[in-house]
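Comment on this:
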Amino acid sequence: MIKELELKLLPREVVDEKLIYQRAIQKVKAAPGTVDSVRVLRRSIDARSKQPFYRLRVAVYVDEPYEPEPAILEGFRPVDGKKQATIIGAGPAGYFAALELLEMGVKPVLFDRGKDVRTRRRDLRAIQQFGVVNPHSNYCFGEGGAGTYSDGKLYTRSHKRGNIEKAMRLLVEHGANPDILIDAHPHIGSNKLPKIVANIRETILHYGGEIHFDSQLTDLLIDNGRVRGVVINQTDEHLTSAVVLATGHSARDIYALLHRRAVRLEAKPFALGVRIEHPQPLIDRIQYNQSPRDENLPASSY
């Protein structure tokens, strides 16, 4: 039997796994020796009172063993290439589309106008030190997309974006901290994202996909209203039965191309991020009502 319940813990208590286990079995009033394991399902911070605390949603396995789900990648098999699809853009949308295609037995062929994460870093350094911008390899374009070199926020209020838990698990299987599976507001630090992105690339290649950098989509091959292929870098034609445009909203040339090819476009609102800098101790004091913050609390946000 699996029982779910909520625990309320102080910051210093939430790091004590033995304490969490004891509190959980006390709350379910389980007989000694009947609890197989206690799993944390969700973790959030409640800072509405003077003393901030953690709320944990846990599952208690009573007289029933916990059997972890097999890794998603264990179900992947090399593709034979008989079925292929072209993906434009090696950002999060492009890479996750490639993983989904591989799982379906379809070979993904990716093209990205930018460079891989390691080479892209040199172009960012040129921007920072010399003000020289490569129009195809910069903060917007390149492997990993626009968010690769800023902390990756993994929070969405939408429930119509597919299997969010699966996406989180795939990130963990490629090197992300498992905490993102339970945190209410998960994120991945910019110091870890490039390596995770590179690991996803290696998975795509390992199972038979192709990834081509410095390869910009410049035209579509259309016949009788159907896409038959793509043109890369003005001259290279690649036939395909399906094209996934995962180019982000900064690739304005793509919208011009679609308009030129009489592809129907529909305006969509998008969020505008504004950077505001405050001293972290100030935000901690406002949000947590304490300064300095408890060592077991993360840097606060708003």
Q: What stands out?
A: The longest helix spans residues 117-130. The chain has seven helices and twelve strands. The radius of gyration is 23 Å. The first strand starts at residue 2 and ends at 9.
